[in-house]
Amino acid sequence: GQSLEQPSEVTAVEGAIVQINCTYQTSGFYGLSWYQQHDGGAPTFLSYNGLDGLEETGRFSSFLSRSDSYGYLLLQELQMKDSASYFCAVINTGGFKTIFGAGTRLFVKA
Amino acid sequence: EPEVTQTPSHQVTQMGQEVILHCVPISNHLYFYWYRQILGQKVEFLVSFYNNEISEKSEIFDDQFSVERPDGSNFTLKIRSTKLEDSAMYFCASSEAAGSSYNSPLHFGNGTRLTVT
Question: What pLDDT score was predicted for residue B1?
């Protein structure tokens, strides 16, 4: 089976840096993705890690350690609009199935 | 920017009735997916579809569910006999290639909120 663990909530202030961790257990692993979802909206893709290391996309970075079954999403220079839910998602071997974690709700305060 | 389109945005149905949810994936995408999200909970995988057949399905996707690509543009999810617990937001997604690589992320539609009464 597959399971993903991420914190349920994180609160941070505008301008700060926040890290959202994700650990996973899966029978077949292809890569780890991160998606953002605002209330009432659809998930939107943020970042992907297929190999160990850091991927940077603007204010967002994502990290993967396959040996530790661990990844994180790093959000820098937080803005109020970053208040949303963030989901880590494991893509299984073959790539036809992406399984989402329960999501981390990020609250950004002024 | 091309987008995935889902209709209707909200569907109310009575328990036991059949519903069909409609999706138009991005035109050059080859892989299609249905997910559902019960309010406030995680996004759950239902099924993936490629080359006119199901590639993978979850335990949720039982005999009550079916998918179809009736023509070159539409992708539908049918629930044969709805139950109260089927009430959820149903998201269609598509991707250019398999998986969710940097070059081929999942693109989600805005969802259909299904309410079963």
Answer: 75
